[in-house]
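Supplementary Methods, section 5.1.

A reviewer requested that the exact input to the structure prediction be made available. We therefore reproduce it here, unchanged from the version used in the analyses.
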Amino acid sequence: MKGINENMKKYEFIEHTADIGVRAYGKNLSEAFENVAVGMFDIISDTSKIDRTGEYRIDLEADNIEQLLVDWLSELLYIHETKNVLLSGFNIELNKNKLRARVYGEELDKKKHPIKNEIKAVTYHILEVNEKEGYVQVLFDI
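The structure derived from this sequence is encoded token-by-token as follows.
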């Protein structure tokens, strides 16, 4: 995987009809998975205003790395919706098609965290995990 330097962007938004995508970069797949999660929550609210007061643990296993990416982001969306939290810190260990993570965030406060977009689902459209080029990309249904 190509390395990124500190000045390189961590993610970028991909405009799509009625949806928003994220292409995230990293020096390895773990970092790219972390950065795509930050990008996803930046679609929802301003991640710079989210304190890391709560911690959640996630263990996932999938048949392939693309499915693992979808499962990862879907699990984060599930935590967001069911626990009413916003997440901004992600610490991931990837081992083939297994993921262990600690994620950090705080309870949603609409005064502190104005909602920019509601994400309905993670989609398979334009889904890509490109370890050689050092990025992952995904499209969200908003």
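The beta strands are 11-16, 19-25, 54-61, 85-95, 98-107, 121-130, 135-141. These observations are discussed further in the main text.
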